[in-house]
Amino acid sequence: MLQKLKLTFCGLLILSSAFADEGFVENRGQWSEPYAFKADIPGGTVFLENNAFTFHLVDSRLVEDIHHKKAPYNSLIKHHAFKLNFIGANENIAFETKDPAHHYYNYYLGNDPSRWKTGIYPTSTVIYKNLYNGIDLLVHISGRNLKYEFHVSPGVDPNIIRMETEGIDELRIDREGNLIFENSVENLVENQPVAYQTRKDKRYEVNARFKIEGNAITYELDKHDRNLPLIIDPEIVFSSYSGSNSDNWGFTATPDKEGHLYAGGIVFGTGYPTTSGAFDVSFNQGNYDVAISKYDKEGEFLHFSTYLGDSEAEQPHSMIVNAQGNLYVMGTTGSKGFPVTSNAFEDEFIGGPPITIISDYDDGVDLFVTAFNPEGTALIGSTFLGGSNTDGLNTANSLRYNYADQYRGEITLDDDGNVYIASSTYSDDFPTSNNAFSPNRIGLQDAVVVKLTPSLNNVIWGTYLGGSSNDAAYGLDLASDNSVYVGGGTSSSTFPSSSTSLYAEYQGGRADGYIAHISNDGTSLLHSTFYGTNQYDQIYFVKLDQSDRPNLFGQTEHSNSDLIYNAQFSLSGGGQILGVLSSDLSSRIWTTQFGNFPGRPNISPTAFLVDVCNAVYISGWGGPLNQEIQNSASTVFGLPTTQDALRSN
Q: Of the given ranges (172-186, 386-400, 532-546), which has the lowest mean pLDDT?
């Protein structure tokens, strides 16, 4: 008796980099568009619909050039979308999935909680059951490959498989029998199909070719056993210019008490196309969201990964995890529909004047503070925070020195879970408390410091901090009595200082650094000092040691040794400044400079830590991209390293 064989057509999509989502993400209503699954591919996105694939391709080379300032930020980025429709396929398809990933995604998109979907595991395989009568379609992701296979049951005519392109510039077959999808972004190549049957674990090849009839694609097969199943296997080849189809920029990271790592950034996702064919859109049209990911302690898998945002642009500036494992994120948003909870202190977007940085904020920008539960499946609090002008962005030219200095600011927590943030504002009506030591805006851009309840339903106190010109708050830390130390930059000669301060007067130059000490109820400025020289200086981080002494980390253009005191390590004129001041800000314990170009910072400060032994740790980056207002870009070449350094050059 002749055993039945299975004949399967397979399609393999070979990609030049790994899939950003590591699989197909099911659409459970978090996206309003009518597709069942979505997967990111290098150079674009593929959407699985009932009886079609939709491909959305993006000019990734131009995106990368914009990021590296090789092209204008407002350059138009070319997109091209096209469909591959399965003609005559069954209308109502049942989908099955196989091989889910270990990690899952949570989506908080928009202000409608019914659309917030959690616990969605990406899957490597999606099966279209009975796409045609007696024919299943398997779509599979494995590493860098996207494979699709037609599984034809015995006795079923494979000629009923018919695909039609929609939105392609030209469809043709080359000399090698490959199918070419010409489009305005990057031509796609589907290699000559492979078909085979199996009997008793032996594989028998069946010669197969493409055939084009107008916009329709069919398969021509040589003689084969109609009593055996058949597998048809074409291969589509995509090309890519970068490691991800969507640009991904890191902004902030934090650990929890168990050592898990949380990473926050922005993702330039590709939206689902509503029309087929070529189209061009502006790069800066609200096309990125916050992305938050929680990794295990060994970095082997994701605990969760979630989008956070709405129709406009948003960025995370700082994150921290409390003792219960709840993650707090502070950032800025231009979205009226940014997800906030029902008990939010400020549940409506106020915005302000239009502003452009990476993206166009047509309705202005507000701060947001959002808290996730440990699993990332729900928001335990989320609120807007701002007034009627620009909030949360440091846009003062005198204080913007490094690339992305606009997005500085910090969030921290006390032992009772109360939330403290330091940032900047242009708003006269920023939420402050009546008994704050500075309840009204004084200058152009002011620093702001705010304390909120753990559920983010109330501002306990809030205060402005500044003088008659521009001021910004970048970092903060809490003393043992919950009084607050704040560090930042100022170009205000009238910035409030104490008579006993280390530097009671503005030192000159384009900007000075400062440290301010605020009482735990926000009603008093206990101590305050300028810190700098007659050149450019700023303080980006302030952290307290075990004796409640503020440690500082910042930059200077001072080319001499005036900021070096009682330090065992120093490089005169170096552009990085470190130090420890007394708790009342009246004296220096030790301060130092280091760097290899006198009067020129090497790095943009990105992180700072003081451990239980009062050792300090710093982090930063430098290179040609780090050029904002200053005349020359930074460089890390020649910075001092130790003999046992992991990387000494």
A: 172-186
Cα–Cα distance for residue pair 305/265, rounded to 1 Å: 11
**Looking at residues 220-240, what average pLDDT do you find?**
76
Return the ∠ at Cα 471 (arms to 414 and 408), rounded to 5°. 55
Provide Rg for the chain, Cα atoms.
29
Write the DSSP assignment of 493-524 as a string of letters.
TT----TT-SS-S---SS-EEEEEEE-TTSS-
Question: CB-based contacts of 175: which residues, under 8 Å, 6+ apart?
Answer: none
End-to-end alpha-carbon separation of the chain, Å?
Answer: 72
The residue length of the chain stands at 649
Q: Are 485 and 449 in contact (CB under 8 A)?
A: no
* pLDDT tens-place string over residues 586-615: 999 999 999 998 999 999 999 999 999 999
Tokens of 185: 């972004």
DSSP conformation class of 406: G
Q: What is the mean pLDDT of residues 221-232?
A: 91
Q: Output the pTM of the full model.
A: 0.76
* Cα–Cα distance, 172 to 166 (Å, whole number): 14
Q: What is the DSSP string of 153-173?
A: PTT--GGG--EEEES-SEEEE
- Residues whose CB falls within 8 Å of the CB of residue 645, separated by 6 or more in sequence, listed in order: none
8 Å CB contact between 581 and 513: no
To which residue do tokens 């995370």 refer? 316
Model confidence pLDDT, tens digit, residues 190-224 = 778 889 998 887 888 899 999 999 889 999 999 99
Residue 281 has pLDDT above 50, yes or no: no
Question: What is 313-371 written as a DSSP string?
Answer: -EEEEEEEE-TTS-EEEEEEE--TT----TT-SS-S----S-EESSSEETT--EEEEEE
Classify 501 as helix, strand or coil.
coil
Residue 41 buriedness (CB in 10 A; 0-12 / 13-18 / 19+): buried
CA–CA distances in Å: residue 177 to residues 219, 357, 369, 533: 12, 48, 56, 71
CA distances from 171 to 41, 178, 395, 444 (A): 21, 11, 49, 59
